[in-house]
Amino acid sequence: MNDYDYKIKRYRGFLYFLLAGGLIALLAAAYMDYWRKVPSTIKIRAGIEQELDFHVPVSGEIYQEEAVESLSTHVESLHVNFSRGVTVKANEIDHYKMDLKLFGILPYKSVDIEVIQDKTLIPSGIPIGIYVKTDGVLVVGIGEFENQEGETISPARYILQAGDYILDVNGEKVENKKQFVQMIEESEGEDMIMTLRRGEEITEVKIRPEGNPNGDFKLGIWIRDNAQGIGTLTYVDTDETFGALGHGINDVDTSTLMQLEEGTLYKTEIIGITRGQDGSPGELTGYIEYENENVIGEITENTAEGIFGICKEEIVTQTSFAPVPIALKQEVETGPAQIICSVTGEPKYYDIEIEELHLEEGNVNRGLVIRITDEELLSLTGGIIQGMSGSPIIQNGKLVGAVTHVLVQNAASGYGIFIENMLVQ
């Protein structure tokens, strides 16, 4: 083989390599696209025939999970093919599994099927004042200070971390920031044994405060023990429970989901609007009086999917809207819809467009991509602004979800959460 033939052979090999790599990348992209079209959990209503149509060339078997767990020798199953619409019906609340294969050959995914009771909720859209108190105190930063010898020190470095919750000190429960600061001052520089919540773990650490030039004992940390703000009430149930925001309350410095000890909803009045612009989110300004007579509910859960709790009966009786059925993920469509929010004093419908559906989105708060199309709302707010989080999304007479975030570079557009994800709580 001469040098020319060798070069030609190498060139062909390189082309084949590129072709194979491109084909693999194309197949991987197609596989991931198919993966996202079928959610890992599908909810269906008990006693009602429903069509599941995901337009994906996958097929597999639906079976009762309990039968497999009990090692039954005969497991009844139902074959399904999602290359076309599939009609399903389950008469009782139950749980099933579905093992799917792409083109009937390639392993695809295992899907949970939850049969749920049909649900109606009262959409709200009213502004709410929010106050939450943390469980212990939250460490939001580690700093330095000068000791009595003029040295720069940081007693908490490598021991505490931003995001830690300090629950008790030397066996005494930490109630608030003021009390914790007093504990440090009264330590006289002796070791403090602290119980922390770090992520999902509870741990203990030992730390010794140091004195500053004034003789005050410090740890060199910044802490927080509460948060306040405004948002929008998404729904009220007939049992006087509520859901709001569509996302959790996170600490502004650490982005940590705040661990709730107690929380309260207050009446609030919108007194100002800062219009949003591309690159600069706007906000609703609310006036809140933190008085007992203004309390309208108790927050019992702060989760990634929103805040939840119990509201006063007056909120149910004063709600402007009638109960509506919920829409499950597979029932939501791209196209026209509406949101309910209170930017002019009373909750009102405004037109939007649902542009994308992410049924298998890793970020639960971004299942819907929406765009404000209502000229009145665009004139008032410029699009989605802070304080509108939780605004219910209505489509075809059903509660679809709630507004969660604005796209900072496009104030008219943003994200929403599917209502079925909020109802996990």
Task: From the structure above, extract its key features.
alpha+beta, six-stranded antiparallel barrel, 16% helix, 45% strand, 425 residues, 6 helices, six-stranded antiparallel beta barrel
Low-confidence stretches: none
Largest sheet: 6 strands, antiparallel, barrel
Give the number of helices: 6
Share in β-strands = over 45%
Helix content: 10-25%
Mean pLDDT: 87
Tell me, what's the shape? globular
Strand elements, count: 31
The Rg value, from CA coordinates, equals: 27 Å
Query: Which strand order do you get reading across the main beta sheet?
Result: 9-18-19-24-23-20
The secondary structure category is alpha+beta
> Distance between the terminal alpha carbons, to the nearest Å?
72 Å
Question: What would you note in describing this structure?
Answer:
This protein has six helices and 31 strands. It has a six-stranded antiparallel β-barrel. The protein is 16% helix and 45% strand.
Show the helix and strand layout:
Blueprint (H helix, E strand, L loop, with lengths): L2 H35 L3 E5 L4 E3 L5 E7 H5 L7 E5 L4 E3 L5 E9 L3 E11 L3 E4 L3 E16 L2 E2 L5 E2 L11 E5 L2 E2 L3 H9 L6 E7 L2 E7 L2 E2 L5 E2 L2 E16 L4 E4 L15 E8 L1 E6 L8 E5 L7 E9 L2 E6 L1 H6 L5 E2 L9 E7 L6 E10 L10 E5 L2 H7 L10 E4 L2 E10 L2 E9 H4 L3
Parallel strand pairs: 1-7
Antiparallel strand pairs: 2-5, 3-4, 3-6, 6-7, 8-18, 8-25, 9-12, 9-18, 9-20, 10-11, 12-13, 12-14, 14-15, 16-17, 18-19, 19-24, 20-23, 21-22, 23-24, 26-27, 26-29, 27-28, 28-31, 29-30, 30-31
